[in-house]
Amino acid sequence: MTKNSNTIGKMHFYYGMGPGKTSITLGRIIRALGHGLKPILIQFLKKHDPSGKKGFFYGEYITLTELLNVPIMQFGNYHFVKTTSQVEANRQMAADALQQMQEILHSDDYDLIVLDELGSMIELNLYSEEQIFALLASRDPHAEIIITGHQPIEKIIEIADYVTHLQEVKHPFQQGIQAREGIEY
User: Fold this and answer.
1) How does pLDDT run across 101-152, given as a tens digit for each residue?
2) What's the CATH number where 17 sits?
3) Rounded to a whole number, what is the distance in angstroms from the first to the last CA of the chain?
4) Which residues pair with 72 in a beta bridge?
5) Please, what's the b/e burial string for 8-38 (b: 16 or more CB within 10 A of its CB; e: otherwise)?
6) pTM above 0.85, yes or no
7) Scanning 3, 43, 66, 106, which has the fewest C-beta atoms within 10 Å of its C-beta?
8) What angle do CA 75, 79, 84 make, to 5 degrees?
9) Looking at the 3D structure of the chain, how many domains does it have?
């Protein structure tokens, strides 16, 4: 497959409180693989636990890394970040992740770079909008970039080529049903 300006180099931003943001990115990764492109998934605030005892056993982690040979970098803990002290505990992780993200965004090693929950890192004030805007503006222009998050981030909306707001209308969680293995994670 040959690469050209019509197939790569755009930026996507998927946001909202509804489910489906990561699922969309996984679909894009599968599609990219089918066309001979090389993807990487960088997940913020997520950590795969192979035992499933400390946190979440993310089904996509096994599928992508072991079956499809897609690299995944995770920067997070085995739990959701909800409190100020949890945010503070993630500051060093955020600094380390920023350095590695910068290296990947400036290399030409990947055709598709997924930055899952990058928007949440901005929402939690672990990164500033200006910091991320500068990083995205200086990236390898040939790489397709996908960003997800919960809230709209105006600077990303301005520079993105695709912007989709996912809105939850109804969810089993509202009826007390917890996330289900193989469906929500």
Assistant:
1) 999 999 999 999 999 999 999 999 999 999 999 999 999 899 999 999 999 9
2) 3.40.50.300
3) 32
4) 41
5) bbebbbbbbeeeebbebbbebbeebbeeebb
6) yes
7) 66
8) 85
9) 1
